[in-house]
């Protein structure tokens, strides 16, 4: 997490976030218009990694509900801080997830977007059934280039993983998530995501979420049907923390 102090965002920071949000909503609307889509069909999730809880609270006050995090340790602390301030948000876990972190992640996340292998499905299902009254919403993270070392399920395993999730009482399969691989033309990546999402939706009618698109490529993602975009730097500014320098794309 950044070294900025906890507490409330300064007046200047809140004004900056309000302006960034206004500009972002206008840009999303323009991308939707260009794609012939209704902006109400695209949910904005603000990826708050490296940024303080105070920024989350300020954006929540401006109407943002969904926030994304990719590291459990940082997310758990931030979620506790936001909850303690009385602010209600929905946390989307979007990072690589180890089985031993499932207990913690299930305790604060409304959705886990990075489900990409059988052992993780088993562990998440067990935690969700023990901690929750209702199933946990999950997305299957698709590996666009099938280089699964960087996270995501390879296309050959899409149907089997979807079937496994559908058989879990603790999980509700809501759709897919993907990150365009480095060096790929984003349109080509998101076209592949849309094609695989449609196949999965044929097995699971409630799996209609396509989480695709980040600050650099959200417009292309919208043009290929994304229903959720995950924006970090466009709203919150650049991340100075070097731990994050190599993993956003
Ligand atoms: C960091 C991150 C984002 C947001 O990236 P930006 O380029 O800052 O918009 C989106 N999705 C995932 C999975 C991330 O890790």
In the CATH hierarchy, what is the superfamily?
Answer: Alanine racemase
User: What profile does the largest beta sheet have?
Assistant: 8 strands, parallel
Radius of gyration: 17 Å
- CATH-defined topology: TIM Barrel
Count of strand segments:
8
The unique ligands bound to this protein are: pyridoxal-5'-phosphate
Strand content: 15-25%
Distance from N terminus to C terminus (CA atoms, Å) equals 19 Å
Shape-level CATH architecture: Alpha-Beta Barrel
What is the total domain count? 1
Question: Could you report the average pLDDT, rounded to the nearest whole number?
Answer: 94
Task: Output the strand order for the largest sheet.
Answer: 7-6-5-4-3-2-1-8
What is the share of helical residues? 40-55%
- Spans of at least 5 consecutive residues whose pLDDT stays below 50 are 1-5
Molecular shape: globular
Can you describe this structure?
With 249 residues, the protein is of the alpha/beta class. It has a single domain, classed as TIM Barrel (Alpha-Beta Barrel). It is 42% helix and 17% strand. The chain is built from 9 helices and 8 strands. It has helices at 11-35, 53-61, 72-84, 102-108, 118-131, 158-166, 186-203, 218-223, 233-236, and strands at 43-47, 66-69, 90-93, 109-115, 136-142, 171-178, 209-212, 228-231. Strands 7-6-5-4-3-2-1-8 form an 8-stranded parallel beta sheet. Strand 2, helix 3 (72-84) and strand 3 (90-93) form a beta-alpha-beta unit. The longest helix has 25 residues, at 11-35. It is globular. Residues 1-5 have low confidence and may be disordered. Pyridoxal-5'-phosphate binds at residues 47, 49, 70, 94-95, 179, 214-216, 230-234, 248.
């Amino acid at each position: 997490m950044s070294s900025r102090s906890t507490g409330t965002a300064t007046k200047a920071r809140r004004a900056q976030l309000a302006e960034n949000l206004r500009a972002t909503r206008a840009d999303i609307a323009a991308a939707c218009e260009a794609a012939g889509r209704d902006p109400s069909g695209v949910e904005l999730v603000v990826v708050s990694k490296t940024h303080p809880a105070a920024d989350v609270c300020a954006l929540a006050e401006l109407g943002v509900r969904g926030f994304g995090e990719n590291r459990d340790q940082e997310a758990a602390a931030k979620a506790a801080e936001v909850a303690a301030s009385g602010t209600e948000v929905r946390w989307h876990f979007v990072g690589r997830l180890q089985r031993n972190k499932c207990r913690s992640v299930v305790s604060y996340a409304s959705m886990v977007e990075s489900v990409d292998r059988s052992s993780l499905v088993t562990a998440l299902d067990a935690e969700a059934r023990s901690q929750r009254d209702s199933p946990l919403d999950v997305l299957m993270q698709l590996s666009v280039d099938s280089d699964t070392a960087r996270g995501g399920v390879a296309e050959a395993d899409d149907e089997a993983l979807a079937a496994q999730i559908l058989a879990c009482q603790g999980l509700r399969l809501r759709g897919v998530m993907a990150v365009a691989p480095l060096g790929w033309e984003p349109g080509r990546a998101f076209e592949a995501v849309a094609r695989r999402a449609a196949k999965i939706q044929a097995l699971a009618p409630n799996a209609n979420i396509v989480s695709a698109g980040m600050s650099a490529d959200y417009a292309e993602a919208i043009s290929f049907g994304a229903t959720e975009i995950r924006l970090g730097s466009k709203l919150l500014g650049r991340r100075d923390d070097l731990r994050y320098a190599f993993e956003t794309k």
